């Protein structure tokens, strides 16, 4: 595509050293620039892309988009907001792929990953080719690719969507984080369905207040559009049992479909039953009733599955197809994941890193635990410090043997993080073991038949960030090794 053709999507701009080179790729990282790239100078929290414009040109950039004139020997397009211009131009460059796909966005504090995988499985079960973008990976049909953020930047998103369109994907399910919404990463994505899971305390280091956190979440629903197209209906799927649902409903012009357990939601669960093999309930919907049976437990998974069912209904699937698609669903990596090496007690790894998610997981464990509940948990550094004492309180309230340890301390002193946690539970029973491997080993070495060990906070992560270094660390692998060491020691005793 020629530069001048691409610039037609911008309402206002100035151009210096005007010419019309062929644009072969779009980049906002100067290290990825090659011959024919259009380079966007993005001002980030840690660096400013304008500083690397010269290197981008040296690497082959055919033109640069910037907020101010730059002394370069290629066209420099000057705009007021380079991030916004990048979103508009990326959408055009990649042929507006989201307009040809059914795109489902999921936002909320907890449950995004599980709900996205449930929806993905429902559509795969009716033989539709799917794409998935989220915390764990990007999946295009059966191929998976690594991802750095829950929601990638708009350039990466449009590239993925373009590739999905080329490969005849029909439905894309995407986790949409509050950071992505606030930073405009999903601008230009034409969502068909927006799903809200819940809103609890998290990311207040970034958003500062819960009101601001909610305002940012509402952007996904206000972006569903302000028109009614009978051939392509837009839906907002809202958790009616969450206090934020009313504001979100008022924030969108789309059709609203609610789900819940406690009230008169459009899609609701009744007669919920749990067993050691899973759960079942009767789902009541505007299109009929069915019995849902799943190999998962916990009220939070009832909510997750209701969200997925409501999404399937909004997309026109038959209720019996949706329910059948969920029947064999297994938990996603790091979400209530069992580490089983033949030990006489369950060891569970879960991503729970907010007070609400930790409470949900521990409530579920209490429903089947016969003995002690060991809780190995920490809090991340350079993240919301206000939740640290609350996390400790939850661990002490629902666990019998809390062990506070390091998570990803990042630039903070791990002992300072632990002191913040301890401030909320002084006088209560707990242990502090800063070394995470040692803390996991301690819990596993003490557990016996009937007990449960929960290792919370990191879930699927395979690393630990200490200072500016990243170390290999997988709670599941560490737990497996500790269990095997314990079993070996028991055999020799």
TrEMBL record:
State the InterPro entries in the record. Answer: Mur-like_cat_sf, Mur_ligase_C, Mur_ligase_C_dom_sf, Mur_ligase_cen, Mur_ligase_N, MurE/MurF_N, UDP-N-AcMur-Glu-dNH2Pim_ligase
Q: Which residue range or ranges hold the Mur ligase N-terminal catalytic domain?
A: 29-94
Q: Which domain of life is it from?
A: Bacteria
Describe which pathway this protein belongs to, using the record's wording.
Cell wall biogenesis; peptidoglycan biosynthesis
Whether Magnesium counts among this entry's keywords is yes
Residues binding meso-2,6-diaminopimelate, per UniProt: 383, 407-410, 457, 461
Q: Name one GO cellular component term.
A: cytoplasm
The cofactor required is: Mg(2+)
* Enzyme Commission (EC) number: 6.3.2.13
**Residue span, Mur ligase C-terminal domain:** 334-459
**What residues bear N6-carboxylysine in this entry?**
217
**Alphabetical UniProt keywords:** ATP-binding, Cell cycle, Cell division, Cell shape, Cell wall biogenesis/degradation, Cytoplasm, Ligase, Magnesium, Nucleotide-binding, Peptidoglycan synthesis
Chain residues that bind UDP-N-acetyl-alpha-D-muramoyl-L-alanyl-D-glutamate:
149-151, 177, 183, 185
* GO BP terms in the entry: cell division; cell wall organization; peptidoglycan biosynthetic process; regulation of cell shape
Q: Where in the cell is it found?
A: Cytoplasm
- Predominant location category: cytoplasm
Where does motif Meso-diaminopimelate recognition motif map? 407-410
Posttranslational modification: Carboxylation is probably crucial for Mg(2+) binding and, consequently, for the gamma-phosphate positioning of ATP.
- HAMAP family on file: MurE (MF_00208)
> What is the recorded name of this protein?
UDP-N-acetylmuramoyl-L-alanyl-D-glutamate--2,6-diaminopimelate ligase
Q: What is the organism field in this record?
A: Caldibacillus debilis
């Amino acid at each position: 595509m020629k530069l001048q053709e691409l610039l037609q999507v911008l309402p206002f701009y100035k151009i210096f050293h005007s010419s019309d080179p062929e644009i072969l790729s779009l980049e906002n990282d100067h290290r990825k620039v090659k011959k024919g790239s259009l380079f966007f100078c993005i001002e980030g929290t840690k660096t400013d892309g304008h500083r690397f414009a010269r290197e981008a040109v040296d690497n082959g950039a055919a033109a640069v988009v910037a907020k101010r004139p730059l002394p370069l020997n290629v066209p420099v397009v000057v705009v007021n907001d380079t991030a916004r211009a990048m979103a508009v131009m990326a959408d055009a460059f990649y042929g507006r792929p989201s307009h040809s796909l059914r795109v489902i966005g999921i936002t909320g504090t907890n449950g995004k990953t599980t709900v996205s995988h449930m929806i993905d499985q429902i559509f795969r079960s009716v033989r539709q080719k799917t794409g998935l973008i989220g915390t764990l990976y990007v999946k295009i049909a059966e191929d998976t690719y690594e991802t750095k953020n829950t929601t990638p930047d708009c350039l990466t998103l449009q590239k993925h969507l373009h590739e999905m369109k080329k490969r005849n994907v029909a439905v894309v399910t995407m986790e949409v984080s509050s950071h992505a919404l606030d930073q405009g990463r999903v601008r230009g994505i034409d969502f068909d369905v927006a799903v809200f899971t819940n809103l609890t305390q998290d990311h207040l280091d970034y958003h500062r207040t819960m009101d601001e956190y909610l305002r940012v979440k509402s952007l996904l629903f206000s972006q569903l559009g302000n028109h009614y197209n009978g051939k392509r209906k837009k839906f907002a799927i809202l958790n009616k049992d969450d206090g934020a649902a009313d504001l979100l409903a008022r924030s969108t012009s789309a059709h609203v479909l609610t789900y819940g357990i406690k009230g008169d939601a459009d899609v609701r669960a009744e007669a919920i039953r749990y067993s050691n093999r899973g759960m079942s309930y009767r789902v009541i919907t505007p299109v009929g009733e069915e019995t849902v049976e799943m190999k998962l437990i916990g009220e939070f998974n009832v909510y997750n599955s209701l969200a997925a069912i409501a999404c399937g209904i909004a997309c026109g699937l038959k209720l019996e197809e949706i329910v059948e698609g969920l029947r064999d669903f297994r938990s996603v990596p790091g979400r209530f994941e069992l580490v089983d090496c033949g030990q006489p007690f369950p060891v569970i790894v879960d991503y729970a890193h907010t007070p609400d998610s930790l409470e949900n997981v521990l409530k579920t464990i209490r429903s089947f635990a016969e003995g002690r509940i060991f809780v190995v948990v920490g809090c991340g550094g350079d993240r919301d410090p206000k939740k640290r004492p609350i996390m400790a309180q939850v661990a002490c309230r629902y666990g019998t043997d809390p062990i506070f340890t390091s998570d990803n301390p990042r630039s903070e002193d791990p002992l300072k993080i632990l002191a913040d946690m301890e401030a909320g539970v002084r006088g209560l029973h707990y242990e502090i073991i800063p070394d995470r491997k040692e803390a996991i080993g301690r819990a596993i070495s003490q557990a016996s038949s009937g007990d449960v060990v929960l290792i919370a906070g990191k879930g699927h992560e395979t690393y630990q960030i200490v200072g500016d270094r990243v170390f290999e660390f997988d709670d599941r692998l560490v737990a497996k090794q500790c269990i095997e060491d314990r079993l070996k020691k028991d055999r020799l005793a």
